[in-house]
Amino acid sequence: MKNKTVKIISAIMLVMMVLFSMSNLVLAATTGDPLDPSKIQGQPSKASDKVNEAANIILGIVQVVAVAVAVIMLIVLAVKYISASPEGKADIKKSATMYIVGAILLFASTGILEILKQFATSTFGGE
After folding, report:
1. What is the Cα–Cα distance from 2 to 19, expressed in whole angstroms?
2. Which residues pair with 28 in a beta bridge?
3. Domain of 91?
4. pTM above the 0.85 mark?
5. Cβ of 107: how many Cβ atoms within 10 Å?
6. In total, how many domains does the chain have?
7. Which of 11, 35, 42, 101 would bridge 125 by S-S if both were Cys, CB 3.0 to 4.6 A apart?
8. Element (H, E) at 89
9. Contacting residues for 115 by C-beta, under 8 A, at least 6 apart
10. How far apart are CA 26 and CA 87, in angstroms?
11. What is the pLDDT of residues 61-89, one digit of tens each?
């Protein structure tokens, strides 16, 4: 089950990265000689603006859901740890280690997506 969740989160992050890269690569247009790369200029597009808006909304939702799930899981693990017997605490510590790794991956992936979005926007133009 844990591997399936990691695969799903990875797939969602990959789709979002593709959306960000697609929305910012639409801005190139040529003026004059198409073989002269120095004459390529970016022109804003309504389509790229709409994809950017949709990607921003999706990224915001993913970040909010990720934080909510992480906090709820932390609370559940804390309650289990407090109410567990000494033998059960060892099992909960193993779960807590997996939780910490998962939370770090979750927050790192949303942070990396945000950095990539800002980089693509500043490099290729846009909002």
Report:
1. 26
2. 42
3. 2-124
4. no
5. 14
6. 1
7. 42
8. helix 86-124
9. none
10. 58
11. 888 888 888 888 889 888 888 888 888 88
